[in-house]
Amino acid sequence: MTTTLPELPFALEPFGPDAGWSYENGVLTGRAGARQDRFVPPGGDSLESVSDAPRLLGPAPEGDFQLIARVRAGFAAAFDAAVLYLHVGDHEWAKLCLELSPDHPTICTVVTRGHSDDVNSFVVEGDSHWLRLSRTGHSFAFHASADGEKWTFVRVFALGTPEQSAAASIGFLAQSPTGEGCEVSFDRIAFRPAAPADLRDGS
């Protein structure tokens, strides 16, 4: 079922397990089920995720952009997370997570090119933080912020071919790899049709 958010210039479609996605009063909510994750172990032989996680995605408009949201996760088990998600191909996708890793809320990233990598960036306070996913040219950038004003650079990377990156889908994901489920919410959602002026100056 298609979901339309007034803050976004594109519609969203659900992928993966059912999350019961809903939107009300500016807040998007959903729930990952038990042991749901989207991750391809880097040491494994398979290029398929050992599990799957609910996603709500739509086609990003052409050109540079920023997708911003304040995310919240109902942490109950290790690696529960609320995620901004980027998809450019069946085996090329990326996650920017507010994750319980495993004892402290942490900004984490995963970039999958066949197999996934896994990077913990820094610990944050509480169960809520701002996340930002940007496209700048043929590359993508991840930032995080405590207040939605001053942004900390997390990562910049290329993913897929230029043609794939130009046709990227973006949106939201919930995961609970080791637990019995995780409630997530996204508010203060915003879309900007431009890249950040400088990836590393806090803007």
From TrEMBL:
Q: Which Pfam families does the entry mention?
A: DUF1349
Q: Which domain of life is it from?
A: Bacteria
Where does the signal peptide begin and end?
Answer: none
Q: Which PANTHER family match?
A: REGULATION OF ENOLASE PROTEIN 1
Instruction: Please give the name of this protein.
Output: DUF1349 domain-containing protein
